[in-house]
Amino acid sequence: MYTSKKNSSGFTLVEILLAVVIFGIVTTTLYFSYNSLFQAREKIEQKTEILSGAETALFRIVEDLVNFYCETKPLYKEKEDFGDNSRYFFYAETDFNQSLSSTAVNFTSYSHLNFGNNNYKSPSEIFYYLKDNILYRGDFVYPYPESREEKEKSSYALCKNVKKFKMIFYDEESQEYESWNSDDQDFEYATPQMVKLELEIELENDNEKFETKIRLPVFREKKE
To answer: What is the number of structural domains in the chain?
Structure first.
């Protein structure tokens, strides 16, 4: 007589399929969890990089302004003595080429960045403008470029993701201006005493705003 023994050491097909399904669920859950974690980490790193660039740009702008230079009386000569433009100046205008108005500014400063081997000691012309959400900086030794087109060709990108770059200027009576021309009679050939800088950086979910005021180290008073 034969007797049958049930093999209890193996797995049934149902058990194998159930294990495969559980393994698939666990693997999928882990994948999406790690993927979300890596995406969040990447976004944080991108945000940190953008904000670090903005802080570097802010430091550079402030450094340029605190080293502003202009001639004061009696060294300063009026317009009829130097022609259309003086060698040391402060110009700023509202640039309407952007979707939001921004400030394009030119001024002379001792904070020239020496990218070559020359030991240039005189003030250079510093130029800032915003285009396609990129803030550009120009740094030119004398004789300065004559046209804005020439200046833009020689400028370099300082900061990306810039939604707003705006300056407000204050005269000796603390009156506000959105533009300035130190070689114009309307401004009585004066330079601003203080500048307020507004910088807004565009991020994925919200924007980061920076604001500071800089008192210029030297200024030319209004013509009496």
So the answer is: 1
